[in-house]
Amino acid sequence: MQTDRYNPVLSLSFVSSAILSSVRILYVLTIAFLCRIILLFGIFRRCDSGITYGVGLSDHKVSLLKMMTATYSFDSFLLNSASIDDAKHEIMLAWGDIGGIILYLVSSEKKEVFPKLSNCGWLIVALRSPGQESADVIEDGSACEDSSIFYINQLEELSLTVCHLNRKAIGSSVVTVGYIMKPSREDDFAKRGAFPMYPTQNGLMFFPLTLEMPLSPQLQEVDIVLHKATDEIISIDLSSSTTFSNRISYTRGMQELQRYMEHHPDCCVIDPFNNIYPVVDRLKIQEILLQLEDLNTEGRCTIRGPHFLKVNNFNELDLVQRLSEAKLSLPSIVKPQVACGVASAHNMAIVFKIEDFKDLSVPLPAVVQEYVDHSSTLYKFYVMGENVFHAVKKSTPNANMLMKLSESNGLKPLIFDSLKSLPIANDDKHGGCGNYSKATNHSIDLELVTDAANWLMRKLDLTIFGFDVVIQDDTGDHVIVDVNYLPSFKEVPDDIAIPAFWNAIKKKFESRKSN
Predict the structure, then answer these.
(1) Average model confidence (pLDDT) for the chain?
(2) Distance of CA 129 to CAs 20, 109, 169, 209, Å?
(3) Is the pTM of this model over 0.85?
């Protein structure tokens, strides 16, 4: 088999009437299968996917099936054991010269079609029915193998099987990246072509790790682990004096990954759990941003973090004095110290009057942060290895506009969830575009912010991260107001962002190997 022609194509046959017992099961199971396969193959330009159905399927089920395949960008083909050649011809007409292998997923109960499917030159992955599971797996953790037929006990094993087959066909020239994150994030990356199971232009191949199976055999197939551990946080103990990693409680599956990495220190991880802790703790990241002053030189804009103060109790008697000493005036923005991973991490408030700190609903401990007038213009920066990109977004208005928004309720604090909604002025004249904030006459200094991005990358030892910058209206100070790990970088065009994403991962791996 030619390595450069190996490009698996998936066809599914979970929908013949002999397999499914009811319309309800057809709908639920097929949706689940389709969603999972979409995550595995990402609807890539070079990977066609389809689902087959039998002659006996009712018109209603066929209609439902075609509606779902259209929704998820799958093809559908009629297939029965008496006319497999016709079905093969139909598939070839639909997909053309695919230049690779068709991998066919079928129930193990449909053994009568195995010989004919094998004669087509297709690889068969047979999913055992419940109660027929077998523990006999080959040494590397992939499915049990019999010539061109591979048996799996659960659908989640399919990606492991495909990964094993691809590595076997391509050899050591490809670097396999196992990734793990919440399904919605995985789906977003996959739909943009970020996680192909065939080699990228720089020799990466991606494989979705799943917590539905033991991680150890999956991790044996990969060279790099890419994770979004903050998706799997249960709780954070900020008061603990233990190491960073012990302050965070993760889900069972993420704990398993953590233990594996501890016992396999040579495993390349993007990024080590300890490295991401500062972006989980707003106080820690604020303290790090204080050191940005080392980058400031005469004749350039100042880049800095916002003035801030940690508060353990909003009823502190000396709160006014402490705010003054921290160079904080009102309005100020109040954020939980925990920056991500828990439901309340994004519950924030903008406070206009000192008496309104009392009984404020923002979780404690909290960080009171300087509210910077920035003419509703936010610059989002994305760091992917050596590459730094930015986009401009509309943001919250200046303090005087916020006060007008809040006048109707007596200047009570503006409470909001920063992931869902922000206090935005209806007046668009405060907006910004490009590299320039019209209302302030300040242009962003991209060279300065790029220097800060590289400084943060070295300081945090992170491969892929993002941060937000606002430009203070009266001073032109560039203020970094937020830092986050492994952002989606949706604002950067995919044809630019995805190759940079791949290159950052590959260079991290090469750097780790050379050390």
Answers:
(1) 79
(2) 12, 7, 29, 23
(3) no
